[in-house]
Amino acid sequence: MPVGIFRVCLVVITAIVNHPLLFPKENGTVPENAEEIIQKMKEREESLRLEKLRLEQEIADQEAAQKALEKAAEVVEENKEEKVRWDMWTALSMVIFLLIELWRQDFQEGNWQDTGGEEDDMAVLGKAFKGVAFPDKAVLASFYEKRILATTGDMARMREMVEGFADDLLEALRSVCNRDADMEVEDCMGVGSMYENWRVRKPFVCDLIVPFAPPEPYCFRSQIWCSGDSFPPDEQGYGTIKVCRADEDVTGCICDKTKLGEDMLCLLHSQANTTRRSSEMEDLLCFKNTQYLDADQVMKWFQIAVTKAWNRISHKYEFDLSFSLLDSPGALKIKFKSGKSVAFNLTPVVQYENSDVYFISHFPRSGLAADLLSSTRWFLSFAVYERRFIQLVSKLLPANACHVSCLQILSFLHGKQCSLTGPSGLTNYHLKTVMLHLLQARPSQDWAPEKLEARLQDMLKFLEKCLHEKKLYHFFIGNWKVPAELGFPIIFQGAEPLNLFRPFVLRRDVYRKTVDTFHEMLRNMSALINEYTVHIPLAHTNGICKESL
After folding, report:
1. Structure pTM?
2. Domain 123-248+279-534 -> CATH class
3. Where is the signal peptide (predicted)?
């Protein structure tokens, strides 16, 4: 019973405590605040989720950046190691290159275009000679006597006739020229194979050069490729000639080098003076609007002057004179009434300073010739020094030395082969350059007449070596061994050696044709020589060798 009463009381108390009217103010807004709280909690949860995603993305980016930095560091480390290896190889390569270059320079200075001089040196070469039957001494001697000497006997008489006529023609040329305005022509000089006594191929052509100078008060000032001026590689061996007044400053006025403003005037040169100066330069055979001598203008002037001179003296001679070749402006031909003719070249040249080196207006072109250069570029000719060198060396050689004989035979063989298979890049000047190098390299006793066969083989093997290497250096340019007796200008001795075979490097078709022609000449050599050789008994071999040489 008491327990029941207690339970009833407990229920009543609980109902009173939980009645909604007991605490109306505290519990009246509970439902509305709950919804707001729930909404704010959802918004907070969403912002926390977005912040979490942002933080996770930043952490991922940082990890990726860290990995990239680590990878870059690894690549840099590998590059450093590789660079160290490459630097080592580069340094080693440079050392090897410098050693080779030093050896090459020593070789050029000590053995400049040297042939070795001994049979052991030649043994390395001569690959093209394998299987080639080389004529013996008796056959070569007979060939030289029957073919060379028999056809060159009239050269001296022809030279004398041409020189006499050329002197008369130039004297008449001086008389028809205006001494105050035209170029002053000097005496002619003979150069080339006809005057070095090794010309073998007909027709015989005399080469004469005619130095000329400008009228007073003008003078020539020359610039050459090795004097420090900028000349491209394909113009090595060329120069320019500037026509100046004798009292003119070499550096010239600043108005020639600087564009003056419209309101500025040079006190030395007015516009009228400039126009008159340009006209004077053209009258002095210069290229248009320049002071540089124009080779084409010079040849036109020279042809007109020669024509006038011939008209003045033609009545004295019983032959006709004409220009024979269009591509060689100085080529003249004398035609006799009998039908015979004599050809010669009369070429105007300009002297380089006080030497016997000459700027030549037009030079015979070969298969190696590239595109025509500007007409203000003049080729330098060393023909006078070449003739003097041959004359000087000949005095030191044994009697009847075989150096000229070797050159004549080689020139004949090459010319004969070219007539059969067409022209090649080799010229007679290349062959003469080979002989000049061997004359300097070998002792004088090696050129005795009985050594004709051995020296001819040397020339052929040396030429083969040069063709293989595509290098044949000009004999005088860069050669410190030129005899001092010649008085050769030192500026050319100190220049870089000039490779006459440089065009072979640029023109592979011409090089291939030249090598094929050379090898074909070697194979046909015996047949070409035997064609002009009378077979003789072996008992007379030695006697014929001595008599023919």
Report:
1. 0.71
2. alpha beta
3. 1-15
